[in-house]
Amino acid sequence: MIAAVGLGGCVNVSAPDKPIVINLNINITQEVVYKLDGEAKSLIQNNPGIF
């Protein structure tokens, strides 16, 4: 009984030798949606160099 108590109470925690590396592959996409009224749309079509 005394031997079982002596063996069960020891826990060792140690830091790793190498740094922890976390690779994150993040893909961010953005979609822009716009609406033009008929007058603005025709103005842009008639003057393509306006922008």
TrEMBL record:
<dbReference type="Pfam" id="PF13617">
    <property type="entry name" value="Lipoprotein_19"/>
</dbReference>
<protein>
    <recommendedName>
        <fullName>YnbE-like lipoprotein</fullName>
    </recommendedName>
</protein>
<dbReference type="InterPro" id="IPR025985">
    <property type="entry name" value="YnbE"/>
</dbReference>
